[in-house]
Design goal:
CATH topology of the largest domain: Aspartate Aminotransferase, domain 2
Shape: globular
Mean pLDDT: 97
Number of domains: 2
Helix content: 25-40%
Low-confidence stretches: none
CATH superfamily of the largest domain: Type I PLP-dependent aspartate aminotransferase-like (Major domain)
Strand order of the largest sheet: 1-9-8-7-4-2-3
CATH class of the largest domain: Alpha Beta
Amino acid sequence: MKHECVEMLKQLTGKKYVVITKRGNRSIKLSLRKAKELGKKELLIQDQGGWITYRQFGEELGFNITELKTNHGLIENVPKADILIVNSMTGYFAMQDMEKLSKEDIFLINDASGSIGTEQAKFGDIILGSFGRWKPINLESGGFIAMDNKEYLPEDENVELDYTILYNKLKGLGERLEMFNELNKKIKNELKEFEIIDGEGINVVVKFKNDEEKNKIINYCERNKYEYVLCPKEIRVLEYAISIEVKRT
């Protein structure tokens, strides 16, 4: 069944090679390590909407790190550097233009943990993802790395996962994404009186101007049993806002 899972991940990423890893963070570390082995030195990360281990592992591996100023996590300009690691569904609420980023003269690592199942998960020199809890592929353990160039391929770690369950999660991904989409639209419609940060994603990020607005949004979440994250928060958005965690449903 592992072979079937690998073949499905090849289709989802459009890549020739896929390696299963122990977890998403392992995928990030292996990808950055491979870039280091290839002689890359200058690492770009987004200032918000990414993941905490981009910087952590980058520092451990000795990269010179530059934090890009973004539009709520969306990258608009790429300065000269060796490597960019990016969450292609920034903060799980908005899609990067990965096709545009893939045309930059830079080694591109696409964290497709949130965008898997969409076209944005198919751009990059290396594509990685997590099967963690609250991810679109929510096996609760494991991850993957995908690439076209065999030179970038890490050793197969022979990871022990329940590949039958993973196969079923992969088969059900389209239906799960549709469920996320319907709930996302419902929440945006019900909170249209507030300023919602625009984005085609899973979560809904709602800005507030004062405590009254903040409490109204929180009460809405609690009434509907939606989990939420209070922002500013680096892995979501650096604004006074509530991130309604549709991905946790």
